[in-house]
Write a structure and sequence with these properties.
The complex is a heterotrimer of chains A (96), B (94) and C (96). With 96 residues, chain A is α+β, with helices and mostly antiparallel strands. Chain A is 23% helix and 32% strand. Chain A has helices spanning 2-9, 79-92, and strands at 14-19, 24-32, 38-45, 60-62, 67-71. Chain B has 94 residues and is mainly beta. Chain B has a single domain, classed as Roll (SH3 type barrels), CATH 2.30.30.100. Helices cover 9% and strands 45% of the residues of chain B. A 5-stranded antiparallel β-sheet of chain B has the order 4-3-2-1-5, with no helix packed on it. Chain C has 1 helix and 5 strands, in the order H-E-E-E-E-E. Chain C has a single domain (11-88), classed as SH3 type barrels (Roll), CATH 2.30.30.100. The chains are: A alpha+beta (96), B mainly beta (94), C mainly beta (96). At the B-C interface, strand 2, strand 3 and strand 4 of B face helix 1 and strand 5 of C. Strand 4 of chain B pairs antiparallel with strand 5 of chain C. Chain C: Keywords: mRNA processing, mRNA splicing, Nucleus, Ribonucleoprotein, RNA-binding, Spliceosome. Chain C: Belongs to the snRNP Sm proteins family.
């Protein structure tokens, strides 16, 4: 839930999503859901020569499970806030 | 494979006094001991088992990573994500 | 109960590494080091100041395995979300 919230705060920002098949897509984060499925607008594929079928694609939906990384705009991520929220979530998860 | 008439059925497997019980009991008994954790990739981690959870996520101390019998890395502490675990084996007497 | 470090469950090891540089081993012969800012129960991670190392094993056509066939590619990323399903191992900084 925490990571979902982080992505929600980053909507309308530019991110780069790297998929498990090595395709990297930069675009504007339009929406995200609890599975971390991602909708991107105004997309640009990093290596178009290697993925020519993607040239004409302007926006896309990415299934969360195929994502390897998402590069985030560091200037819009409050790391202190993240760490506090992570500790709070860890504390709320009462284990056995 | 036919057995002679009147032979009693074989006795149930003997309960070894030290290594008896359920998988859960084994896991409880092995915490704090030296173990080998083999991943599905075939890589082994040898170290002291600090603790584990229901997903088989594992915390190890003084860990050595072995690939094809060669030490490839050492970690003071290591967290192993449970889905990668093939088995946990005791590396000392329990 | 526990021997030395006083951790009760594996995730404690990760929680105690927040705001520290960690080593992450991933599927696909990838390794990362970065400063840990967030994680969740899936081992989804958010790291900053990340260096990724990719091991590339050259496999010639004839199937032979030559010596020195392992190449290493490195790259840096500022702020990175790592999807948990690719994580194999996380190691905190060794505190002597």
């Amino acid at each position: 839930m925490l990571i979902f919230s982080v992505f929600k705060t980053l909507t309308d920002q530019t991110v780069t999503v790297e998929l498990k098949n090595d395709l990297s897509i930069t675009g504007v984060l339009k929406s995200v859901d609890q599975f971390l499925n991602i909708r991107l607008d105004s997309i640009k594929v990093l290596d178009e020569a290697r993925h020519p079928h993607m040239i004409a694609v302007k926006n896309c939906f990415i299934r969360g499970s195929v994502v390897r990384y998402v590069q985030l705009p560091a200037e819009n991520v409050d790391t202190q806030l993240l760490e506090d929220a992570t500790r709070r979530e860890a504390a709320s998860q009462v284990k056995r | 494979m036919s057995e002679p008439e009147g032979t009693p059925p074989p006795p149930p497997p003997a309960e070894a006094p030290s290594a008896s019980g359920s998988p859960t009991e084994f896991l409880k008994g092995v915490v704090g001991k030296r173990v080998v954790v083999r991943l599905t990739s075939g890589v082994d981690y040898r170290g002291i088992l600090s603790c584990l959870d229901g997903y088989m996520n594992i915390a190890l101390e003084q860990t050595e990573e072995h690939v094809n019998g060669i030490v490839t890395n050492r970690y003071g502490d290591a967290f192993i994500r449970g889905n990668n675990v093939l088995y946990i084996s005791a590396a000392e007497v329990l | 109960m526990d021997s030395s470090s006083g951790i009760q469950e594996p995730f404690d090891l990760i929680r105690l590494s927040l705001s520290e540089r960690v080593f992450v081993k991933l599927r696909g012969d990838r390794e990362l080091t970065g400063i840990l800012h967030a994680y969740d129960g899936h081992m989804n991670l958010i790291l900053s100041d990340v260096e990724e190392t990719i091991l590339i094993v050259d496999q010639p056509e004839d199937g032979s395995v030559p010596k020195n066939a392992i190449n290493v590619a490195k790259r840096k990323m500022n702020m990175l979300f790592v999807r948990g399903d690719g994580v194999i191992l996380v190691s905190p900084p060794s505190r002597a």
